[in-house]
Specification:
The protein is built from six helices and six strands; from the N terminus they run αββββαββαααα. By secondary structure, the protein is an alpha+beta fold. The chain has one domain. Strands 4-3-2-1-5-6 form a six-stranded antiparallel β-sheet, covered by helices on one side. α3 packs antiparallel against α4 (about 185-200), α4 packs parallel to α6 and α5 (about 210-215) runs antiparallel to α6 (about 225-235). The radius of gyration is 34 Å and the shape is globular.
C-alpha cells in the first residue's frame, strides 16, 4: 500500500514540475500586467527646413551702418537695420520671392558652403566699403565666412543678391513710413526706386506691385508721386 502511494506521488511530481518551470520562465521574460515594450524612437532627422541662412553687412560710417538678414528654407525671416545716430535698430519681416530664393539657393549650393573651408577674402582689402558676413547652419553644422571683397564670383554674387534684398526691404519700409508721416518725401523715394530698378538693384520688382498700386491712387501723397508710381508699375509689368 505504501509503495503505491509513493509511486503515485512520484508520477504526479514528474507531470507538474516541468510545467511549473516553463511558466516560471515565461514570467521572467516579461512581468505580467505590463504593456508590451515599444521600439525605441529613432533620432529626428534634420531636414532642409531646419536650415538657417544669415547675411550681414557692417560699415558704421554709412547712413545705414548695419544690416542683418536671417531667413529659413522657405525664404521667410527678418531684416534688422540700424541707421547712423539712431539708438534703436529697426526689425521688419522679410520674405524672399520665389525668383530671388532660387538664385540665392543656387549660389549657396554652388559654394558647397558647409563642406568648404575656403577663405573668400581677396588679397586686396576694401574695408572702407563695408564687411559682409554670410552664415549657414543646418542643425548639425554651422559655418560663417567674412569678407569685404572677394575674387570668388559665387560668394560675391551671393553677397550682392542679399544686398538687393536689403535695399528693397529698406526702401519699402521708408515708403510706408513716408506715406504716413512725410508724404512730401515719397517722390524722392520713388526716384530711388527707379534708379535701383534701372541698375538691377532690386531683388524682385514684382513684389512691389501691391505697394505701387496703392501709391498711384493715394491722395495723401503729391500728384507727382502718384504719376511716378503708375509709371514704375507699367515698367514692372513689362
Amino acid at each position: 500500500m505504501r509503495f503505491k502511494v509513493v509511486l503515485a506521488l512520484l508520477i504526479f511530481l514528474a507531470a507538474v514540475l516541468p510545467a511549473a518551470a516553463q511558466n516560471s520562465t515565461k514570467r521572467n521574460d516579461r512581468p505580467q500586467g505590463l504593456p508590451p515594450m515599444q521600439p525605441r524612437p529613432e533620432s529626428p532627422k534634420v531636414t532642409s527646413n531646419a536650415k538657417r541662412y544669415t547675411w550681414e553687412f557692417t560699415q558704421r560710417n554709412f547712413i545705414v551702418g548695419h544690416i542683418l538678414i536671417e531667413h529659413d528654407a522657405q525664404g521667410r525671416g527678418t531684416i534688422t537695420f540700424e541707421r547712423k545716430n539712431d539708438e534703436v535698430p529697426i526689425v521688419e519681416p522679410v520674405e524672399l520671392s520665389t525668383a530671388a530664393l532660387g538664385r540665392i539657393f543656387g549660389l549657396w549650393g554652388d559654394l558647397h558652403f558647409l563642406d568648404s573651408d575656403e577663405n573668400y577674402q581677396s588679397p586686396k582689402s576694401f574695408a572702407h566699403l563695408g564687411t559682409y558676413r554670410i552664415s549657414l547652419q543646418d542643425g548639425q553644422r554651422q559655418r560663417t565666412a567674412e569678407f569685404n571683397w572677394s575674387n570668388n564670383k559665387i560668394a560675391w554674387n551671393l553677397a550682392n543678391e542679399y544686398r538687393r534684398v536689403a535695399d528693397q526691404a529698406i526702401l519699402v519700409f521708408d515708403l510706408n513710413l513716408a506715406r504716413e508721416m512725410q508724404p512730401l518725401n515719397v517722390p524722392s523715394l520713388l526716384n530711388l526706386m527707379e534708379s535701383l530698378q534701372r541698375r538691377d538693384g532690386l531683388s524682385d520688382a514684382k513684389q512691389l506691385v501691391p505697394l505701387l498700386t496703392e501709391l498711384k491712387t493715394d491722395e495723401h501723397i503729391p500728384l507727382i508721386a502718384r504719376n511716378q508710381a503708375e509709371r514704375i508699375l507699367k515698367k514692372v509689368g513689362k
